[in-house]
Write a structure and sequence with these properties.
Distance between the termini: 38 Å
Strand content: 15-25%
Oligomer: single chain
Strand order of the largest sheet: 1-2-4-3
Number of helices: 4
Low-confidence stretches: none
Number of strands: 4
Shape: globular
Radius of gyration: 13 Å
Order of helices and strands: HEEHEEHH
Largest sheet: 4 strands, antiparallel
Mean pLDDT: 92
Length: 133
């Protein structure tokens, strides 16, 4: 298993790990846990992509109510616009967005979500127009 470099926070879309498959997922999750950073990754499932973020890997990190509300609003907007599946999760600690159309869009959403959980809401507003983040 190769050692993963710490991800910047917020993490740019092109640096979001591709965690497709058990080994890459485990490596990315373990790296986040060792670095006590919020886990973020994209994963190809069939024809679509999934975005995952998990704050359990960063026990010292808290997601305040304003951030949680903004992320929840964004996820609801994505569900209502049918960009992601309705069984996607809006946290409060674990976030998953199912059935994203492309890798590029999944990376954009992952980067915006990662920025949001670190308190930077502007990328979320840019990635999901029509939400009042």
């Amino acid at each position: 298993m190769r050692l993963m470099q710490p991800l910047p926070a917020p993490c740019p879309a092109d640096l979001i790990p591709d965690a497709t498959g058990q080994e890459p997922f485990n490596a990315a999750y373990q790296a986040a846990r060792q670095q006590q950073a919020v886990f973020v990754a994209v994963e190809r499932l069939g024809l679509h992509w999934t975005v995952k973020a998990d704050a359990l890997t960063a026990p010292q990190h808290t997601i305040d109510a304003t951030v949680y509300d903004a992320v929840r609003t964004a996820v609801i907007h994505l569900i209502r616009s049918r960009e992601i599946r309705p069984d996607s999760s809006a946290g409060p600690v674990y976030f998953v967005l199912y059935d994203v159309e492309s890798e590029q869009r999944a990376r954009e959403l992952a980067a915006a979500l990662h920025a949001a959980v670190y308190g930077h809401l502007t990328p979320l507003a840019h990635a999901i127009p029509g939400t009042s983040t």
